Amino acid sequence: RFAAPPVPGIPLKPENNISDSQPNFDALP
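RE: above sequence
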């Protein structure tokens, strides 16, 4: 499934695009 639209400052990782309702926060400190 498609992940949520990219959030500024939070790059989406393809391996983490498993949710279509939540952004990926792996890039957060």
